[in-house]
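HUMAN: Would you supply a protein with fold tokens?

ASSISTANT:
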Amino acid sequence: MSSTPITIVGAGLAGLTLGRSLAQKGIQAVIYERASSSPRYNYGITLHPSTYQPLLRILQLDENTFHEKVAVDAQQGGEGHLSSTHLATHSSYGDSSIRCHRGKLELLLREGQDIQWDHTLKEFDTFPQSRGITASFQNGTRIDSHYLVGCDGAHSMTRQILATTMKLKVLPYVVFNGKRHYSCAEYQERLAPHLKDSVLIQMRKGNVLLGVALDEHTVSNHTVSYTYSRPARDGNDPLHKPDRATIGATDIPQEVFEELEALKGIDEPFADVFNAENVRNDRLLHWLMRSLMPDREEVQKLAGQGFILVGDAVHAMPILGGDGANVAIMDGIKLAEHIAGRGPEDMENFSSSRFETWKKAVTNSERRLDEMHTAPKPCL
């Protein structure tokens, strides 16, 4: 195996898991990330046992210690417990799945890794005869490598440069996400009784889905996120803006608050959380539900040139209904195993071996998103 370190672009869940897994196997890797090293992602993600149990072996932690470090309610001695009976559809999560604080999980994964921050990818040069790759970054850094793994998320610059035919698809859903901070007393009075059995709860009102989730406990306050979502309406839906710019996520139309005011007959804590006047005081974002189906031919061609895409860079899933974090983590673990067992020269076969998993995950995420907004049919 070449002594040249494997180049990883992107210090998200896939890239960090891959780097940590390779290090455990004695294989050098360097991660290049466009962001600064400041902690990111102050929100919860759902991990299934099929994902976090293999991750425990990489991190060399037992399950209790893992919960103490990353569960969204760890400060209160919780384990990030989820209950399927509190969710709109039971097909998404089992009762053994847990909610982790993504920022804390990434900090845990970063430990001991060579991460070069503030490196925004600019372009690639390839040298087929020597199977060489030169990655150029906007800060002037140039990195020579034989193998490069693009783990840089749904808006992957690696993919945009190398695989121009693979484009994100915006699904026809309206989704707004808010974040609110509660004092300890407020949380105990208004939310704790409803979140004691599950740190994520949902209810459906017609085809509108309301979700409330605990993101983090601290000594002084509790952070809660909430989501209002529905299918886009036929015709001119003022809340469905599939072509909006990325910076347009903070542009919130008045019609959002009008729809919240029209909600009637909803129980607590949803009535209080989604009170229009309360929401006006929060940080609110317009989320687009995006997906990306991998292109087998394109992925195989890139792998033959020494490039491989993993995580959201190759199989993006909608935030609601998707298992992007789980598949990304497993991509990192599986790719490290493949490289250790067969060498990086065989990455083309890795892409082929994962393709059906990726395709199924994207298809299932879109189906779950539909189920979450569809009332169950009555039993006959």
Q: What stands out?
A: The longest helix spans residues 347-372.
